[in-house]
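Technical annex B. To support the medicinal chemistry partners, we prepared a structural model of the target in complex with pyridoxal-5'-phosphate, based solely on the information shown next.
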Amino acid sequence: MGNESINWDKLGFDYIKTDKRFIQTWKNGEWQAGTLTEDNVLHISEGSTALHYGQQCFEGLKAYRCKDGSINLFRPDQNAARMQRSCGRLLMPQVPTEAFIDACKQVVRANERFIPPYGSGGALYLRPFVIGTGDNIGVRTAPEFIFSVFAIPVGAYFKGGLVPHNFQISGYDRAAPHGTGAAKVGGNYAASLLPGSEAKKAGFADSIYLDPATHSKIEEVGSANFFGITRDNKFITPKSPSVLPGITRMSLIELAKTRLGLEVVEGEVFIDQLDIFQEAGACGTAAVISPIGGIEYQGKLHVFYSETEVGPITQKLYKELTGVQSGDVEAPEGWIVKV
Ligand SMILES: *Cc1c(COP(=O)(O)O)cnc(C)c1O
């Protein structure tokens, strides 16, 4: 496929086979040499633990084309560190930070023609993952592993500006109190497919999960983190061992404090105290910020700022973070790695 066939303005979030991907295997107790390949199909043992026991984890990050033509990776060291924690939780070998970043850079360079142009709002999305492979049947850690990184061009999540969506509190739990909620593992996503589809059938963007122990506090918004802006201008985001520590969340915390001068609280967001918020949103790599119009709970819709308009603080946060990512706004030390 040539670039001529990519309509940058129409790009969504769909799988596209790009030119090259990085692949590396772990065998005989160590990582073997990694390589770029054109082959986008994995040939693995039918006994692979990734297929039966969910021994796998993944990451998501983006490469951005800047105004001056250079290419930015946003905080890849944080993705490397999180993947190491996910691997540790599932008894998989860790990929060292430098090797992780190097693999990402190789994949970006090899697929440079797929990076959406500066100003299009798109980016090259990178999907690193580790899976347990090799002949096996018992519930134990795999004899072999694969670490791979592939890339797809993705469009701006919101074309023509941010739009709020309504969400529904789910009756299902996404993760157990001391389970794998904080690890970016496929099992958590498998568990979220049914609640997500029920929320969509009911006309909502996605489901919101409450804390699994007491079901009284907001934890996650689909596969993104929650934040709210209180009426006295505090940025509040849930703190819990079963919340996935998002890099967008971590970055917004920093920018809210240092650039917007907001007080930041990592704490509890009680579902029966949503009145304290003037604005609310979901945050993650895919959309950066997805404003929350309203939340349905026990048959009632609680509206924050508006169901159709986006609050000013949410807009400021979005502008600041996307500016940092694309190189238009000065980044805090260490946030940008040039490819
Ligand atoms: C990946 C993910 C997020 C967002 O993390 P980012 O690093 O900001 O992309 C939030 N919640 C869940 C459950 C996730 O899997």
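Notes passed to the chemistry partners:
The domain at 165-325 is CATH 3.20.10.10 (D-amino Acid Aminotransferase; Chain A, domain 2).
Helices lie at 49-52, 76-89, 97-110, 186-201, 247-258, 312-326.
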